Amino acid sequence: MELVNLLGLPRAELEGFVADRLGAKFFRARQLMKWIYRRGAADFATMSDLAKDFRAQLETVARISVPEIVTEQLSNDGTRKWMLRMDQVQGIETVYIPEPARGTLCISSQVGCAMDCSFCATAQQGFNRNLSVAEIVGQVWLANRELAAAPSGSHRITNIVFMGMGEPLANYRNVVPAMRIFMDDLGYDLSRRRVTLSTSGLVPQIYKLAEECNVALAVSLHAPNDALRDQLVPINRRHPIAELLAACWHYIERQNGRSVTFEYVMLDGINDAPEHARELARLLRGHPAKLNLIPFNAFPGTRYRRSGAAVIVRFRDILNEHGVIATIRKTRGDDIDAACGQLAGQVKDRTISRMGSRLTAEPRAVAEVR
Ligand code: SAH
Question: Is pLDDT of 326 > 90?
């Protein structure tokens, strides 16, 4: 019989499991959650406030199974990147970004990505599969363990962002329960403003999310008009800008949120002209919106270049002058290819989404990151 992985199990399911499968009291589930998330335990034997025979019983039906670290890289700026192995051939990347007052963990939701945005390294890898709830939560579990063991000691995860590999709303079924664990007081106990879901613009799922889960929303806009966005973010052909923005304003209203953060990658000569900034301002002015300008991060084989520093500053200033709050995202971890859009991991069998069949692939050497 297969052991049930308790990592990532929603609270109600864990309570059900404990009561129905083990005949134990509900509060055992609470104790288990504290051990797993707060104390980072993966071994029932260490759970000292659980009765010995209950622990022995757990061993026979359950496990706490976490992804395996393949490589760890440390950037000059303190950013850390882990490549995690999810199964025999597939790898994903998780990035920790320390700042003076906070620590942000950037996690992945899929192996690869099917959205095919033309400026993103993950897109070039193609798509293999969705991550499970345990694999999503497991990234936080592992990062916590590694940070606790890190020499300087003071590292802590205060924010979690779905800005790693994959389109989180295309894996809605697993991403939402994972976010609930991030915010559960017996889980990672983060406030809803400290969990950010970033999407390329899956409109129906934004409406669904508005009914079901309350987190900060970031949207990858990248262009002020449909002609350009169709080229950069192909999902725009299905859900154009007007539809996307309507969904965003609905989300904020429904969730009583502060604002949507729009991400805008600065591509030299493509979307960085003053007229683009003015066009953007017309779209966003008067709405609960903030704009985050991301200097493009290059990766092998890309045809794009980063806009010049002065161009980016001018772009921001035009937006600010036109009543839209815009900031420039500081590039972090680019020396280890951990910056936005540089996560490639190891995606094998990427023809699945297109061909619907599993091709056998030679596993790459596990230590190879790119
Ligand atoms: N699929 C989600 C999350 C992915 S990435 C989404 O699209 O929002 C997080 C951000 O990095 C997105 O805004 C993405 O568009 C941006 N990004 C992708 N490639 C980039 C690159 N090469 N340079 C800078 N930012 C990039």
Answer: yes
